[in-house]
Every structure is written in structure tokens, then in C-alpha cells.
Amino acid sequence: MTLPWLAVLKSVPWSDVISNAPVVADAAQKLWKVVSRKAATPVRPQPVASQQAGAATEMRLTALEAEIANLNNEMLETSKLLKELADQNALLIARVEANRKRLRWVMGTAIAAAAV
């Protein structure tokens, strides 16, 4: 009986995954550089033009600034996580490829030993 996850693993185009791993890692690195540069520039509120702006407007502005800062931090953390996952994926793909080559060598050796 074939396990469902084994069927899924067999249906994955591993050659495409292996060939695209460096592209994914590079894209994650570029994303990280862009996001980390944007996060380094703090958001400064513009001065309110009207002198009649009340305390409610100031509170709303403060709340919006806090939300923007929160979203900026989340974006930075998410892009950092994506970069780490892409790096781990590239490492995993490299190890899978090395194991595939090693398995071919072992199978060739076993076939040669069986023929002798």
C-alpha cells in the first residue's frame, strides 16, 4: 500500500526544484535587502496645517503611527523569515542532490558487485 505522502513526493518535479533553488535564495536575499533598507528609515509625521486640530486628531494620528510602525516590524520579521527559509531550502536541496549522487554510486557499485 502506497502512503499518500510518498505519492506526493513522487509527483514533485525534483529537477525543477533543484534547478530553481538558487533563484529562490537570490530572490529572498534581494527582498531582505529592500525591506531592511526601507525599515531603516523611520516614519516621521507631517505637521498638522490647521491650528484647529484637536486632541482627537492627535490621538488618531498617534494610533496610526503606531500601527504603521507595527506593520513595518512585521514586514521586516516576515522578510527575515523568508530569507532564512530560502537559505534552508537551498541547503536542503544541495544535500538531497548530494544524496542522490551518492545513491547512484552505491547502486552502481552494488550492480557491479552482483555482476561479479
Task: Describe the protein.
This protein has 116 residues and is mostly helical. It has three helices and no strands. α2 runs antiparallel to α3. It starts with a helix and ends with a helix.
- The separation of the N and C termini measures 34 Å
How helical, in percent, are the residues? over 70%
Radius of gyration: 26 Å
- Largest sheet geometry: none
Question: Helices and strands, in N-to-C order?
Answer: HHH
Question: How would the blueprint of this fold be written?
Answer:
Layout: H1 4-11, H2 14-40, H3 55-115
Helix pairs in contact: 2-3
Which key terms come to mind for this protein?
mainly alpha; 116 residues; 3 helices
Q: Short description, anyone?
A:
With 116 residues, this protein is mainly alpha-helical.
